[in-house]
Write a structure and sequence with these properties.
Blueprint lengths: L1 H26 L6 H22 L4 H22 L6 H26 L1
Helix pairs in contact: 1-2, 2-3, 2-4, 3-4
Length: 114
Amino acid sequence: MKKYIKICAFPLASILILPLIFSIINLLGMEISKIIYTIFIIIFMLISGFILGLNIKDKGYLKGLAYGSAIAFIMFILSFILQSSHSLYNVIYYLIIIASTTLGTMFGVNKSSK
């Protein structure tokens, strides 16, 4: 159980810290586009999937799919709580999160088995 809590700490911290950093940058007068934010999320989800893949032995794609879906679901629920507008961009964003986490987990399983 402690292993999974440690694995979940990285993406949850990135979900909380990245908006804070980007908000501070926006307060300084610089604007960050959605593309840059999406690229950072892809990188963080690849890293968290890779970390998960190093800790499991097989079927990285299933664990990555479940892990990415859980993170996307949490973000979807948070968007409802915060009454964010929903669009096609959000659906694509959630699919990108799931795909990048799955890909990172597959890389992690392949790296750990060598």
